Predict the 3D structure of the following.
Amino acid sequence: MKAGFVSLIGRPNAGKSTLLNRLVGAKVAIVSDKPQTTRTRILGVSHRAGDPDPARRGQIVFVDTPGIHRPMHRLNVRMVDQAVDTIGWVDLLVVVHDAATRTGAGDRFVLELLDRAEAPVILALNKIDRIAKPTLLPLIDWFRRQREFDAIVPISALTGDGVDGLEKLLWERLPEGEPLYPDDMVTDQPERVIVAETVREKLLRHTRAELPFSTAVLVDGFEEVSAEAAGEAGADDRAGDAGGLLRLYCSIVVDRTTHKPIVLGRRGARIKQIGTEARHELERFFGTRVFLDLHVRVRTGWRENDRILRELGLER
């Protein structure tokens, strides 16, 4: 039996969260084409206790981390701290690089941080479905000139190409050990965090490129209503579930007053679309009907606000 922690690190928008979801076999991290989507460390657990192959029997706890970049706000500092912190305590490190982007100073910055790592380091060249094959060898050569890797694996987290090979390498290097988490657990995220991140994913999908960096979602209320009370309140049967109702109240926090109408959309159409998509996904996740109330609040300078950062799980 094998068990251990594997950290996924790299620059923003390298595809770490897509890879995490692929490796775990479930959606545990939100995904967006916007950089810096992941803001906190997320655990995703892959259970293989009953695998017929003894070499792949056990549990891998994947740690998805925020993209490493040079921070400009207190928010960004704490995001990068979460990623860098994992380098010192995990059993394996997987550096995820977007093969469709140019290499440069940002990659060197990430690789310099790995000098403190004692764990084996594997390089996953992601998004190979978006590049021409002749460009792959020069990319591999560039990384080999920067430092020594335990292995270099071309993959596509989106299509799954090469991911089995990456998993095989991980299992080969994982230490012996008993499972670290219960076999019915796929993530350590509290329900409130799942709610906030689901809303934020839909927000990222429907807003302009400059907005994601200056928005956050806070859960103001989380109330479970019994089936009897939900029936008395006249709740509909959207999810096809005769059970209770989950009442969720969330604030979408923006940094400027000019951002509020962007989130709301014309006559409230955009925030309604965000709420509808988030509610449907949350109903599937919780297996019950959901009432989701969204409000937009302006909090100028929130990215430097310790209280809000603590609410987002970004403790110092």
User: Anything to note?
Assistant: The radius of gyration is 21 Å. The longest helix spans residues 269-286. The longest strand covers residues 215-225. DSSP finds ten helices and nine strands in the chain.
